[in-house]
Structures are given as C-alpha cells and as structure tokens.
C-alpha cells in the first residue's frame, strides 16, 4: 500500500536513483540490466488519483468482507518489452513446453498477446499493488489464455526500498546470502500482506533455497492476484474462487519457483501463534481499505509482536515493515488532532510503530522511499548488527557503513536491475 508524492515531486528527479550504477570493485561499475519497473514508466500505469483514468479497463472487481471494500484490478498497456523482443519469450515457452510434453514434437506454438500493467485498487481509489503481466496462448487448438506476472519487475519504489534495505541488513548480521541464492542453504521468508504478490514472487525467483510463506487475511485479494495479476495459482491453499489460469500454467511458467511459495489465507496474528518455522527475514506490508496498518501488528504489548520475536532467527533475524505517512513527526503525542487533518491515517503513529518494533528486536533504522510517502522500517538483533563497532564511532555511521558495504554484494548476487545502495541510504535514520 502506498500514497504518492508523484503529483508534487515526481517530475524533476524521476530518474535520479534508477540511472545510477553502483560500484562493484575499484575502478569498475556493474552495468545494470534493463529495469522494466523503473519509476520513469509510472505514467503508463498510474491513472488518475480519483480512479483508473483514460485507456484503462477493469479485469477484476469484487467486494471484500475483510475491510478492503471493493477490490479491483485495472489493466494498462505496457511499452516494455517491445514487440521485437517477444519471439525470445515465445521460444523459451516452446522449449519449456517440449520438456514438459515430449510427445508434442514441436507442434505447439506459443504466441504472446502483449504485456500489461495490472494495478490493484481498494475502493476504486487507493493503489494497493502494481505488477507487470505477460499474456499468451498456445496454438493450434488450445486457445486458453495464460498470464504470467513478471517477477523481475518491481514497479513501485517502496517495494525496491524494502527489498534493498532488508536484504542488505541480512549479511551485516552474518547471514550467508549468496548460499541462499545458489540453493546451498535454505532461506525461510515470511511475507505478511500479499497484494499482487510482487515481493514473494521476486524473492522466490531470486533465491533457489527459499521457502516463502505468505499470509493474507482476505481471500478476495488472493483471488485478484491469481486470476488477474499472474500469480501462481498452486501456491494458494484454501482458495475457493476458481483460477483463470490453465491447469499446467504454473509448471510451464515457473519451473519450480512456484514450489517455493506457500500462501496461507488466514489472520497474521493467528498464523504466527501456530507456525513452527523460524524465519531469516520477514516482510510486513499490511494495510486495509482505509490505509490503516492494524494496531495489533504494532502493539508493543500485543500477542503478535511477542510471538513474532520468537519466530525470527535469534542471531540474524530481520524484519522489514512498510510504513506510509505524509509527515515525519518527532513527537507522535501532539494533542492538537487538527494538526493531522491533512496527513495520512497512519501519519501520527509512525514513530510509535518504529519504537515498538525496536523494543522487541533491538536495533531499528528507516530509509525513505523516493517519490512516495513511504518509509521502510528495518529491525534486527543489535548484538549482531553492532558486532565489530569501534568505540567513539557513532552507531548511525557504523550501521550505515555496514549496510553500504553489503549493498553491492546484494546487487551482484541477485543481479538486481536497480541500485540497492541508493535505496538503502536514501533518508537513512537510526531509530533512537
């Protein structure tokens, strides 16, 4: 969930972060792959602040019984990849199909229909998630429509901020991230809040050793992601709504990536009590149709945080939380409520959320998401993060230095199409 500063500040510095290549070694620079989720494409899918806008068409619309109002998915044409690149994907699909169905003898031919942005909205207004989806069909005879979310494309800057800051923190706490990428080590990941599924799908595609558990309370949101945003249908457990994807779609597209995803339709507080896993990293992005981050997910004395603390690895365990606010307030206890009339519902609580998570995990820092009113909160064990600190050096400088040192390794290990380092240091603040 996010709100944009795009209307007031996206014009001037829109390519400031995405155009920068980060250093990999002395005197060299890593050439970044094409970032199809670059913020410069936002006009293709942004629409209007009060609705989808011209050129859009609704592909999903259903009422939620879990506080999200009307959940809809709106489609917009995407300019990338250009049509001259489609044959490469068609050949890849045909090769995949031949391995799955050796008896096909090359008769099946895949044809790409195009690429679209798919934007999930709550109550026709709040943009909840954005994903790029490829649509194709298999001929001759079989005209069933296949859709595949593009896992490498993270279109919203706050998602890149969460991924960058969270994954950069793990190696700083002595976690061997490259071994999880290669599959030599198992990496247990928990995502609370599903949306279109871009974060869990990205992580499952990048880490061969990943087991990604996703918790989403609203079955309508899950249905929207599966039916209209190209998320693997087989990962969802207990989904009553039918999937628009053909039965062999997951095996054809994902080649095992979908086997790393476990989507649970349940309440996060209930899940964390009964779950037996110990997680290396947890991503939390859970907002309802009124832009509210549920209080039980940040109540310092509540069951959720007490249980989450036990379910995160005691040495390198890291938790990443998406917060959005029009205002960074030094004091959340302002008595004049009129001061908050023009800011987001969560604005006056951001500082309290940060302190609550810090109290349970030890060390907390925030990074500001460019162009949007979002803050990435990262919490981890302070004894691991501050290991090796020298007397006299400020905690902020030491933590930031470690994060920046690990950022280039994260970029290379995951072959990121965006500069991790820039997202980590943007508005970096150590929570006191």
TrEMBL record:
One of its GO terms (biological process) is methylation. One of its GO terms (molecular function) is methyltransferase activity. Keywords: Methyltransferase, Transferase. The keyword Cell inner membrane does not apply. SUPFAM superfamilies: S-adenosyl-L-methionine-dependent methyltransferases. PANTHER family: OS04G0510700 PROTEIN, SAM-DEPENDENT METHYLTRANSFERASE SUPERFAMILY PROTEIN. This is Uncharacterized protein. It comes from Brachypodium distachyon (Purple false brome).
């Amino acid at each position: 969930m996010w709100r944009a500063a795009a209307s007031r500040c996206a014009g001037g510095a829109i390519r400031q972060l995405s155009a920068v290549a980060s250093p990999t070694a002395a005197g060299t620079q890593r050439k970044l792959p094409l970032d199809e989720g670059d913020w410069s494409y936002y006009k293709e899918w942004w629409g209007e602040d009060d609705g989808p806008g011209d050129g859009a068409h609704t592909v999903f619309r259903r009422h939620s019984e879990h506080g999200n109002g009307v959940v809809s998915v709106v489609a917009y044409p995407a300019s990338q990849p250009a049509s001259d690149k489609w044959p490469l994907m068609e050949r890849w699909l045909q090769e995949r199909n031949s391995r799955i169905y050796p008896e096909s003898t090359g008769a099946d031919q895949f044809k790409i229909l195009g690429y679209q942005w798919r934007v999930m909205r709550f109550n026709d207004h709040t943009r909840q998630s954005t994903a790029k989806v490829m649509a194709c069909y298999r001929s001759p005879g079989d005209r069933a429509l296949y859709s595949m979310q593009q896992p490498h494309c993270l279109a919203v800057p706050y998602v890149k901020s969460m991924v960058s800051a969270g994954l950069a923190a793990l190696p700083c706490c002595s976690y061997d991230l490259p071994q999880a990428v290669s599959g030599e080590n198992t990496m247990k990941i928990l995502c609370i809040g599903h949306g279109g599924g871009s974060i869990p799908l990205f992580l499952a595609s990048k880490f061969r050793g990943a087991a990604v558990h996703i918790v989403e309370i609203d079955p309508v949101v899950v249905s929207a992601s599966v039916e209209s945003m190209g998320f693997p249908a087989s990962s969802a457990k207990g989904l009553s709504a039918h999937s628009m994807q053909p039965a062999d779609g997951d095996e054809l597209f994902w080649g095992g990536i979908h086997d790393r995803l476990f989507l649970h339709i349940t309440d996060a507080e209930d899940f964390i009590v009964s779950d037996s896993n110990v997680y290396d990293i947890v991503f939390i992005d859970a907002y309802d149709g009124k832009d509210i981050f549920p209080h039980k997910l940040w109540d310092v004395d509540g069951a959720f945080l007490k249980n989450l603390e036990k379910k995160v690895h005691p040495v390198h365990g890291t938790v990443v939380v998406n917060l959005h606010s029009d205002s960074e307030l030094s004091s959340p206890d302002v008595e004049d409520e009129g001061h908050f009339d023009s800011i987001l519902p969560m604005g006056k609580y951001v500082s309290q959320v940060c302190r609550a998570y810090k109290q349970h995990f030890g060390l907390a820092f925030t990074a500001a998401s460019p162009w949007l009113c979002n803050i990435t909160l990262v919490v981890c064990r302070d004894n691991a993060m501050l290991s090796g600190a020298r007397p006299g050096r400020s905690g902020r400088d030491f933590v930031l230095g470690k994060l920046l040192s690990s950022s280039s390794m994260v970029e290379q290990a995951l072959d990121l199409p965006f500069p991790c380092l820039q997202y980590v240091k943007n508005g970096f603040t150590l929570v006191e």
